[in-house]
Specification:
Structural class of chain B: alpha+beta
Order of helices and strands of chain B: EHEEHEH
Number of domains of chain B: 1
Oligomer: heterodimer
CATH topology of chain B: Histidine-containing Protein, Chain: A
Largest sheet of chain B: 4 strands, antiparallel
Shape of chain B: globular
Strand content of chain B: 25-35%
Low-confidence stretches of chain B: none
CATH architecture of chain B: 2-Layer Sandwich
Structural class of chain A: mainly beta
Helix content of chain B: 25-40%
Shape of chain A: globular
Distance between the termini of chain A: 44 Å
Largest sheet of chain A: 8 strands, antiparallel
CATH class of chain A: Mainly Beta
């Protein structure tokens, strides 16, 4: 039997108009409708999925530019060359924590590749201070999206397993 | 093209929930809608754009609309912002 080494560093990001987004955190996959924040559960910010994290470093889900890293470092937005925007929002109502429990690992405006560390989390603190640490990962510009698929896996590993696959609409 | 400057009053500024409401309203109009804080201007129809301004309570922002329904769009967005975006 032959085991192929899994390619983790060269994800085919634009294969046939599909863009693959890897899990930015390790943990259990949570359906977006089960996120305890209506703004995400009702897909007001965008479509995607969420992760109940067990790892402490948010990594970039795709190649692109870190277009948003909030001063409080509780959320990060990455824009791909195709224009697709992905927001990783750590926890619920965590803007209120004013940065406590979050350490930025990258700078807004910098080029990132899949797996680049973006934010380090003090999960132990956040489990006590945040309403929830469940982290939505959403595509925020649905106009570019033709189809969005969520992984069927119950648990994903950061920077290794895919979380979302997006087929881009033809321009 | 029309524009108006106002002060954001809701407590978390233009973060996820209020930003989503603003983007939804901006998206209802065909004209271009931009939001400016200081010297940075973003597309008010992009939630990442709006959130990248990191608008906090007490910040002044300028809404500019440009297109066929610019007056209606400006009025609607200004009313939404002045209402405190549900906060």
């Amino acid at each position: 039997m032959v085991f192929w080494k899994r390619k983790t560093d060269t994800v085919e990001t634009t294969d046939g108009g599909w863009l693959t987004l890897l899990a930015p955190l390790s943990g259990r996959v949570v359906r977006l409708e089960d996120v305890p924040d209506p703004v995400f559960a009702q897909r007001m910010v965008g479509d995607g999925a969420a992760i109940d994290p067990t790892s402490d470093t948010v990594v970039s889900p795709m190649d692109g530019t870190l277009t948003n890293l909030f001063p409080t470092a509780h959320a990060a937005g990455v824009t791909a060359a195709s224009g697709l925007e992905v927001l990783v929002h750590v926890g619920v109502d965590t803007v209120e924590l004013k940065g406590q429990g979050f350490t930025p690992e990258a700078s807004q405006g910098q080029t990132v590749t899949v797996g680049t560390p973006l934010i380090r989390l003090d999960l132990e603190t956040l489990r006590n201070t945040a309403k929830s640490v469940i982290t939505p990962v959403v595509v925020t510009n649905p106009a570019l999206v033709e189809t969005l698929e969520v992984t069927q896996q119950d648990v994903v590993e950061a920077g290794r397993d895919w979380l979302l696959r997006v087929k881009l609409r033809r321009a | 093209m029309v524009e108006k400057t106002l002060t954001i009053t809701n407590k978390s500024g233009l973060h996820a929930r209020p930003a989503a409401l603003l983007v939804k309203e901006a998206g209802r109009h065909t004209c271009q809608v931009t939001l400016r804080k200081g010297d940075k201007e973003v597309d008010a129809k992009s939630i990442l754009g709006v959130m990248s301004l990191a608008v906090a309570a007490g910040d002044a922002v300028t809404i500019r609309t440009d297109g066929p329904d610019e007056a209606e769009a400006l009025a609607a967005v200004v009313q939404l912002l002045e209402s405190g975006l549900g906060e």
